Amino acid sequence: MKSRRIRKNLSTGLKTAVLCAFFIFFMLPIIWVVLTSVKRPVDQMAIPPVWIPEHPVFSSYVQLFQHPDFMTSLINSLLISGTATLITVIFGALAAYGIERFRIGGTLLPNLLLLTRMIPPVVVIVPVFLVAYRAHVLDTHILIIAAYSALNMALVIWLLRSFFAALPADMEEAAMIDGCSRLTTFWRIVLPVVMPGIAATALICFIFCWNEFLFAVTLTGQATKTMPVLTSTFVSQKGLDRGLMSASGVISSLPVILLTVFFQRYLVSGLTQGSVK
Question: Can you give the pTM of this predicted structure?
Fold first, then answer.
């Protein structure tokens, strides 16, 4: 009995140590960026590296807030990511419901959707740029919103399909027997039940749109520049402004962190809801 308890404690301690090691491994770059954003330039380049600055400074944040493109880029990121997420989730939910309930497209359409996620974005960026250039829609919000919506539509459909599949069809049949139309049943019966899954999917889609760089740097310009594009401009021929880039990275992470904390309970329940049928 005593040896079994010892083995159990050792096993628990080993699991805890492994989890702590993974936590440190993934959190170390984030901590380094946060600390770099409050270091003096001499501490940023110090060898051996200075982990905790003795005299923290916030000049990088002041410089970032005073940057002429900062507020425009932040508003563009919020507008583009939020609108693209809203469009993608609305149409993705309708498509996923139709595919799951009515078997639209059979097994071919879901596989074609999955195929679009296998194509690297760098393959399609040149044709998209040429079409946008000839249509005179470069550096417009509509173009980048449409690109993000198309880029994440297949992912949203695939995620939401599992949530609709876990929902018993008897609930919808009972509602339609009581006189509800298919659309009313979808709005009043289906959506409230799968709302945790929709919230989790919307959060994942927003994070992908917020962090996307390739389409943003190719299709945007001065008027539609996003935060990732602004951060990349701090690398120039004159060198790398580590403090300013770190401060931009910290500020760029705050909206995603706040949304994740706010939707945490929906995220956990949503991701587990679709795994049980």
Answer: 0.85
